[in-house]
């Protein structure tokens, strides 16, 4: 009957809440050690009337507590550090690579001395310039006017045609159309590859694998003339320019 029925067994349990968070500190890592975990489960089992298994896990926990100092420590969780750029600061402007006072020796107006200069035709022929233009270029007497500012060198050539290049002193590249009259098309890149009080060098790269050209001016000690050497591949032409005094 109802009076002979045993009362229902009382159920007891352990509620565990797991929290996620950042990297565990030393105290948290100690709580998460194998011994602590076994001890916690043993307490839960003992509270739930599973005395045999609870006692066994409690003994295992005590054993782990004894041997834990000789075990390798738990690895420290890695932290991810992210760097972000808050702002960019412009670098201070650098001084020009050339002292402009006094002016470099190559500044001035210069005229070709044809009596002691080689013809420019081999260079022009290698660049694909037609025959008539090559002959006409060597027939005229070229004049170079070179000026300099705090940031640029300007080379104005008066020959068969007038050509002007304005090149940054810091060696930055500039582009310009390939001179007409030859086989080349497109843009040529030019920059100053060497600048000193007595030497000025310009380097050009032509498009479509057409090679390069190095144009070097070296002023003689007296400052009244310079030697211009133009090199393209295996070809080299040397010309002499003399200063025109005003």
TrEMBL record:
UniProt cross-references to InterPro entries, sorted A to Z: Calycin
Top-level taxon in the UniProt lineage: Eukaryota
Protein name listed in UniProt: Uncharacterized protein
Lineage: Eukaryota, Sar, Alveolata, Dinophyceae, Gonyaulacales
